[in-house]
Amino acid sequence: MRIAICDNELFYVEDIMERIEKxxxxxxxPAIIDGFIQGTQLLDAFxxxxxxxxxxxxxxxxxxxxxxxxxxxxxIKPNCIFVFITAYHYYLPESMWLGADLFIDKPIDYDLLDxxxxxxxxxxKRLNRTVTFSTTEGKIHIKTNEIxxxxxxxxxxxxxxxxxxxxxxLKTIKKARQQLLDYHFFPLNRSIIINFKHVKSFYFxxxxxxxxDMLPLTKRIRKEFREKYFDxxxxxx
Length: 237
Description:
By secondary structure, the chain is α/β, with parallel strands linked by helices. It is built from seven helices and 15 strands. Helices cover 36% and strands 30% of the residues. The protein has helices at residues 10-22, 39-48, 66-76, 92-97, 110-127, 174-182, 219-236; strands at residues 2-6, 32-36, 53-57, 81-86, 103-105, 130-135, 138-143, 147-153, 156-161, 165-169, 185-187, 192-195, 199-202, 206-209, 214-216. Strand 11 and strand 12 (192-195) form a beta hairpin. Helix 2 (39-48) packs parallel to helix 3. It folds into two domains: 2-127, Response regulator (Rossmann fold, 3-Layer(aba) Sandwich), CATH 3.40.50; 130-236, CATH 2.40.50.1020. Keywords: Phosphoprotein. Pfam families: LytTR, Response_reg.
């Protein structure tokens, strides 16, 4: 996990860095914690190797503010997690439009900082959760967010992800299949398990996935699908 802090006041950069270094992480600790006092410095470093979590001041005192800088970084890494630092609450609607719901007020409230850090870490874990599959290409670890859907047929399976299709023997994925169902996945029928994250749209009798595959939605499952999908969407907001 790579974390960056960017604020045009060095005091805040050092203060937040120190707090993160002292924080008791339950699982993975940050491998890198970098500090910046200029947005351009952060952007240059981000282009070389993106960060997972960025604590970002909105008023940087530069041509670009933190919101504009975040948009540029999201173009590079769409799942980057931002914690905005601000004393100017009129920026909040625009930052929330970016998908950010993590904020720290100035002056820093350390209890709030700890809560937002834990929240960001939980989001990071969810984004990077993996499931292991035995495939015809060997054993692979795939991030759940990259899985579009799993389809089984005649003792075989096909796993469609955002960048590849994997195949294998159905007997080898009993544990993986259950793990998917424990996360944000839903069984459309006995053969197909879809990732709610990759539902592009749905209609009366079919679901359109992010790769434009259309999957059948039967009358028997329609009500449950709608209820659980909207529950998922509400939790993600």
